[in-house]
Design goal:
233 residues, alpha/beta, five-stranded parallel β-sheet, 7 strands, globular, disordered N terminus
């Protein structure tokens, strides 16, 4: 944060709290440039899990709600920016707000919406847009099995990825199991899959429009971010 952009005054600033390097690169390379065309300047901020007294620390992979909340409160100190999250529904800390209430909701879309509502209530911030990737950021890599297969140079991979999507119904519905969540399925099918480099590069090749077409929950979030451009004076 704090970098100066001469055209910033004509854009809405948006801070996106992301879970790790993959999401950070996706925002920088793909989502940010797309939103800039909607007059929204998006900046990824990787979640800090521990800061050291001497400086630096550890980023990514929160193990508690307090770690997430502390990062969000810090971002809320920027009174000129909107704030949103790009965190995975899969693997949330066990003390994340709303997990018990979520169990009363029917269907995974209602469940993730319940958690997002609780997240918004905890933040109680007028410029906060809660979002959890359903079930996982890597689900978006299944938006175009052909593009993902071409990236790895293995044409036969496309049919295998498509079969996983067909069984789930949609990329975002690929499930929450320890061995069957999206990232685990990719790692099983692609021996040399590199999460931090392959993931964002493939998403850039697939493109925002194809991802939003295949992933309704992502599309709903993106519409809210696009609409921020209407807040310009």
């Amino acid at each position: 944060m704090g970098k100066k952009y001469p055209w910033r005054s004509s854009l809405i600033r948006l801070l996106i709290l992301v879970e790790g390097q993959s999401e950070e690169t996706f925002v920088k390379r793909t989502l940010g440039p797309y939103l800039a065309r909607q007059n929204v300047y998006a900046e990824a901020v990787v979640l800090w899990t521990k800061r050291l007294p001497a400086g630096g620390g550890f980023q990514g992979g929160a193990s508690s709600w307090n770690q997430i909340f502390g990062n969000l409160k810090r971002l809320a100190g920027d009174t000129n920016a909107w704030i949103t999250t790009l965190l995975d529904f899969y693997g949330l800390p066990s003390d994340f707000p709303g997990l018990q209430a979520m169990k009363k909701s029917a269907g995974v879309r209602a469940r993730v919406a319940c958690l997002e509502d609780h997240l918004a209530q905890k933040m109680n911030h007028g410029r906060f847009i809660p979002f959890l990737a359903l079930h996982e950021f890597e689900a978006w890599l299944f938006s175009s099995p052909q593009v993902t297969a071409q990236h790895f140079g293995t044409p036969g991979l496309a049919n295998k990825l498509q079969s996983i999507v067909d069984r789930a119904g949609e990329p975002e519905l690929i499930n929450n199991g320890k061995k069957t969540h999206p990232k685990a399925q990719l790692a099983r099918l692609v021996a040399n899959y590199k999460e931090a480099s392959d993931g964002p590069l493939i998403l850039n090749k697939i493109g925002i429009e194809a991802i939003r077409t295949a992933c309704p929950h992502f599309d709903k979030w993106l519409k809210k971010l696009e609409a921020l451009g209407s807040h310009l004076p």
